[in-house]
Amino acid sequence: MPRTTSRVPRTLLAATATAALALALATALTTATAPALAAPAPATVRAAEAGATATAGATSGFWACSVPSGHTYTSSRGSYACSGGGSHQSTEFYVQPPADGLWACTTMPGCTHTGVRSSYTCSGGGSHLSSQFLLYKPVTGMWACSVPSGFTYTTAQQTHT
Questions:
Q1: Are strands 112-119 and 90-96 parallel, antiparallel or unpaired?
Q2: Whole-model pTM above 0.70?
Q3: What confidence category does residue 36 fall into, taking pLDDT thresholds of 50, 70 and 90?
Q4: What is the DSSP letter of 54?
Q5: I need a surface site. Which of 12, 45, 52, 103 has the fewest CB within 10 A?
Q6: Segment 64-75, tens digit of pLDDT
Q7: In degrees to the nearest 10, what's the CA dihedral of 160, 114, 147, 123?
Q8: What is the Cα–Cα distance from 25 to 81, expressed in whole angstroms?
Q9: Per-residue pLDDT averaged across 74-82, rounded?
Q10: Cα torsion for 22, 24, 27, 31, to the nearest 10°?
Q11: Sign of CA dihedral 37, 93, 99, 58
């Protein structure tokens, strides 16, 4: 009995392998660079946590109706709590002090960022994509996506991060 085989064009195999490699690389980079973030605190956690230090990381966050100076936010949502008792939603922010390795919705003075990703997390209700920035305090010799104040650069490279 003759043996039948199915031949898949090499271009299809190459495209499939490339897509699988890209997915594996994206997953590995996200897993390797994204810090494990705790779930945002419930709306009842407020200003009592505002005095927590940046070294506490994700556990020092709190929900607020505005972002205080010197802080950033890592998530936002529509909320009736910030509308003054009205019948419409306004934006509530999950506020945190800037820290190394924090995915934030804004860049911060005194920090640089080493990665950018698209996310629904910062859009105040998840209706559109916006950017998140991987924050770090600048140090001499680091690769970064922006040149912080007081620094210059000696080499540039193009990346997908």
A1: unpaired
A2: no
A3: very low
A4: G
A5: 12
A6: 999 999 999 999
A7: 90
A8: 41
A9: 89
A10: -130
A11: negative
